[in-house]
Amino acid sequence: MQFVEEIVVDEFLPTVRSMLAGELRERGLTQSEVADVLGISQSAVSKYAHGDVATNDRIAEDERVQSLVTELAEGLASGDMTPVQALIEIEVLVRELESGGDLLAQLHEEAVPELADHGASFRVHDPESDLRTSERVLSSLRRGLRILENAGGFAQLIPAVGSNLVACTPDAEDVDDVAGVPGRIFDVKGRTTVPSDPEFGVSEHVATVLLAARAHGSDASAAINVTYEPELLDDLAEVGHATAEFDESDDISSSVSAAIEAQPDATVLYQTGGMGIEPLIYVLGPDAESVADTVRSLL
């Protein structure tokens, strides 16, 4: 496993420092002055000057790197630029080169070929990349599940059909964009049991309710189903949750739509059951941890 930051430290910085040290020396700075400007030792400057530090030719030959090094050398040598300003300029270039398809991203993908499996749209440091978004959802879901597992008494809220805590990506359109627990969460002899790690596309039921709520105005990104009890609804309402009833025997999307239209601020949906349908409460929230905390507060 190699992070892109390691490439920045091991290849980009030595290359840029070597180039910058050479440019500064050409502009008349002594070895000691170069060391002060770059914040490194004189022995390090000597190693750069004698080519004793390995550099990356692809980085050194990049026109943007060459242009920035020249600009920094001129500014630092003349005193028109401070070392902090130079550092900021280098940081900006690093972020640019880390973007999907650019130089540092290419070097990273070559060092870790498995990254190619995530498609050409993957961007190493893009916080909105599909991979990072999915990992954030799964991470949030794992934290929420730990809250439930450690919440004494949660097992008593698990319905006969099992419970599931789900969370979706910001632009979720179908169940494949919603992560949940394969096989659901069950009560095994009074113990909350999560059979496996969360995955995307494994919870059709709770995911469908969440997606239907989002499609009709809810800004929720996570949900859980628990057993239905009037007292639980009262407790939820008492702490500020708006509740709305829907009919699960009908088309879920249209039923949830009607419920949301009647109560736009609803964060709790419920149905009281029917022929072959177990009554359930669905708690919605902005993320898996919040939903888990809400449920824990009921115990």
TrEMBL record:
Residues 26-48 form the HTH cro/C1-type domain. Signal peptide: none annotated. InterPro entries: Aldolase_II/adducin_N_sf, Cro/C1-type_HTH, Lambda_DNA-bd_dom_sf, ThiN. SUPFAM superfamilies: AraD/HMP-PK domain-like, lambda repressor-like DNA-binding domains. One of its GO terms (molecular function) is DNA binding. PROSITE patterns: HTH_CROC1. This is XRE family transcriptional regulator.
